[in-house]
Design a protein that fits this description.
CATH topology of the largest domain: Tetracycline Repressor, domain 2
CATH class of the largest domain: Mainly Alpha
Number of helices: 10
Number of strands: 0
Largest sheet: none
Distance between the termini: 85 Å
Helix content: over 70%
Strand content: under 5%
Oligomer: single chain
Order of helices and strands: HHHHHHHHHH
CATH architecture of the largest domain: Orthogonal Bundle
Structural class: mainly alpha
Radius of gyration: 22 Å
Shape: globular
Number of domains: 2
Length: 229
């Protein structure tokens, strides 16, 4: 005989599965269509459920989009924490290359997050038009904090902020729109050739300023020592 508790547990598990099905479908739809173009009907079709059922779990499209972007940003932060921990003992040139490799691997395995961010950031005329927009500056701030733990450059925080913002937004633009970027280069989007192009491009753009940031800090410290002497 099935007890009320068992029935409730079954219902709860089914609800969790349905909710996960909806958010997975929403992630895919929102990575293919801008927020204002995507519809609950599209998401319901992708999820294989009647779209009015979505409103039982998410009362509005804005709430669903905010949930999806929150999950994506939290997931990206967790992965960054892992990556920064893995590269913390490497030389700076090796550390950047290793970080880029991990980022490219992540995007190859899971392309929807950066596509969703790239598509919706470029479509909005103002960031407040994106539900859950505060997730974006929070994401960048947390990545900057992780960076500062490895390279504690207190006297050049502005340079670090410019560097991190530039890296994050360019990475989102290049990887989030990688099919188009690859085709412009005459390459296949998922090819080893295009991956190497992305790897080289990011290294070429961001390694020199990273060295400059480090040298600024070193020179400042040396200058302080000379003054004290």
């Amino acid at each position: 005989m099935t007890t009320k508790t068992q029935t409730g547990n079954i219902r709860d598990k089914k609800g969790i599965r349905t909710r996960e099905t909806i958010t997975r479908a929403a992630r895919k739809v929102f990575s293919e269509y801008p927020y204002h173009t995507a519809s609950m009907r599209m998401i319901g079709k992708e999820a294989g459920i009647e779209h009015p059922l979505i409103n039982y779990y998410f009362p509005s499209k804005a709430r669903l989009f905010e949930t999806v972007t929150s999950e994506i940003c939290s997931e990206f932060i967790r992965r960054n924490e892992e990556w920064f921990d893995e590269i913390r003992n490497l030389k700076i040139t090796d550390a950047l290359t290793s970080y880029i490799d991990r980022l490219l691997d992540y995007n190859a395995e899971n392309p929807e997050p950066l596509r969703l961010l790239a598509l919706n950031i470029t479509q909005a005329e103002h960031i407040t038009q994106i539900p859950g927009y505060q997730q974006f500056p929070d994401l960048i701030e947390k990545i900057q904090q992780l960076f500062m733990k490895i390279i504690p450059i207190k006297s050049t925080a502005q340079q670090v902020s410019i560097y991190i913002n530039s890296f994050v937004f360019l990475a989102i633009a290049l990887l989030g729109s990688s099919p188009c970027v690859a085709q412009v280069q005459g390459m296949e989007p998922g090819s080893a050739q295009f991956r190497e192009w992305l790897r080289s491009a990011l290294n070429m753009i961001f390694l020199p300023p990273l060295k400059d940031i480090i040298n600024i800090q070193v020179n400042t410290v040396r200058g302080q020592k000379k003054k004290s002497e």
